[in-house]
Write a structure and sequence with these properties.
Elements: E1 6-9, E2 23-29, H1 39-55, E3 60-64, H2 73-86, H3 90-96, E4 127-138, E5 142-145, E6 152-154, E7 163-171, E8 174-179, E9 192-195, H4 199-203, E10 208-218, H5 219-232, E11 235-239, H6 247-253, H7 258-261, E12 264-267, H8 279-290
Parallel strand pairs: 1-8, 2-3, 2-11, 3-9, 10-11, 10-12
Antiparallel strand pairs: 4-5, 4-7, 5-6, 7-8
Helix pairs in contact: 1-2, 1-8
Protein name: RNA-binding protein
Pfam family, one: Methyltrn_RNA_3
Region (Disordered): 1-20
Length: 293
């Protein structure tokens, strides 16, 4: 970066829910993509899921146990690792992810292209952009690496090795930056991936719990109820079954009462002309419809 570029710090702003819409959590089973024998193909499918989640501003992906004893926990960790890699800005990946077998095909992942993953030349242009930063040191002040050619100082104690988001303003060769709150109305900062160990316990955290199933109410008939749920709850979860079992079968396997788990069960692809719909395809169809509400 040019030597005449100057850095300054701006004050932080308050947070709001983007667009006034509820935050959405997507729930996929631990076994997602475990039926794919090739790591290469699994990586591509997981990357597609990441793109869909980011497209529709999903806040969290939760991987839930779909069999007693969580036999697919290792697979869930693989899914999380690949998605965590994808949601990390490219200029931070080498610092956080050493070469390893599980990320062998990471080069096939599609760019997420969210606003906190800026182009390399973004800082050369006048105006505002956003970027992720890695906290490399923490004390009374924190030092962060934001891919700007030099470390930045934040006048706040931040957890070391955590990732934060910055707003960068460039004007007349001067760069000003400020720390964004975790939830900001200014920009979508990506989704997080979390592994859960109890489907029933996790569902209790949500006011609206939408199950997806080809046996559910056709979305054309359920739209009004979906609208009510989306507009009357701050937190909504959308739950998908496994490749070989629907949510009713999963609930039965886990010893749960299906009818007590969900607010509504919806078929988001009524009159489908294909025998089966892949989970990642159902995810795209479902979120596209919910995004219109």
């Amino acid at each position: 970066m040019a030597n005449n570029v100057k850095f300054g710090v701006e004050e932080k702003t308050s947070a709001m829910q983007p667009g006034g819409k509820p935050s959405i959590t997507v729930m996929l089973p631990h076994s997602f993509a475990s039926d794919i024998p090739s790591l290469r193909e699994a990586t591509v499918r997981i990357g597609f899921v990441g793109r869909v989640l980011a497209t529709f501003r999903v806040e969290e992906l939760l991987l839930y146990p779909d069999k007693p004893g969580s036999p697919d926990i290792r697979n869930a960790r693989l899914v999380k690792e690949i998605l965590d890699y994808l949601t990390t800005a490219p200029y931070l990946r080498k610092k956080l992810y050493p070469l390893k077998q599980s990320l062998r095909y990471a080069g096939l992942l599609p760019p997420l292209n969210i606003h906190t993953h800026p182009d390399a030349d973004a800082v050369k242009e006048e105006g505002v952009h956003y970027r992720q930063a890695l906290v490399t040191a923490s004390g009374e002040t924190s030092t962060v690496e934001a891919g700007l050619g030099r470390p930045l100082k934040i006048h706040k104690k931040l957890p070391k090795n955590s990732i934060v988001n910055l707003k960068i303003s460039v004007k007349a060769g001067r760069i000003k930056y400020k720390l964004l709150p975790k939830k900001s109305s200014e920009v979508y900062t990506g989704f997080r991936t979390r592994i859960a160990y109890s489907l029933a316990e996790e569902l209790k955290r949500y006011g609206a719990r939408i199950a997806t199933s080809r046996l559910g109410m056709p979305v054309t008939e359920a739209f009004q109820r979906l609208e009510e749920l989306m507009k009357s709850n701050d937190r909504v979860c959308v739950v998908f079954g496994a490749s070989d079992r629907g949510l009713r079968e999963i609930a039965e396997d886990l010893g749960l009462e299906y009818d007590q788990l969900f607010s509504i069960t919806v078929n988001f692809a009524p009159n489908q002309a294909v025998k089966t719909i892949r989970t990642e395809e159902a995810l795209a169809y479902t979120l596209a419809i919910l995004n219109t509400i």
